Amino acid sequence: MYGVDYSQRMIEMNPVKKTSVMDACNLQFRDNSFDIVFCHGLLHHVEDMDKVIREMKRVSRKYVIILEPNRNNPIMFLYSALVKEERKTLKFSLSYLRKNVRRNGLHIMASFSHGMMVTNKLPVLLLPVLRFLQFRQPFGMTNFIIATKENY
After folding, report:
1. How confident is the model at residue 138 (pLDDT cuts 50, 70, 90)?
2. Range of the domain at 38
């Protein structure tokens, strides 16, 4: 397992033992270096999403997994509208993410929206209630894409 981030501060917080500060548009790994390449909440922060997806595809032997906020979730929509750094999230519907993943030559095995909470942002008192909403749904908090380099 290897963790990569553009921010040294985020690398310092990462529990993974092997980490590097790196630009997602120019990953310093050989082609086909990892079985699975994964990102969470990255694409809505980059200037060239296609380049990042192509880099993820290049360094993956088989799977690319992408998790991004779902703009169709009312809480995420409001948060994205209010917080300048999160505004690009307003584009990220599941269909938008699927289109971009396919455009970059990946084959989608599964895609869905899931859950209603982000545990590190939620008051602890709400966790027991929202735990019952942790399932696939169109208004889920997070969009998931599981893709392969080859059509299976």
Report:
1. confident
2. 3-148
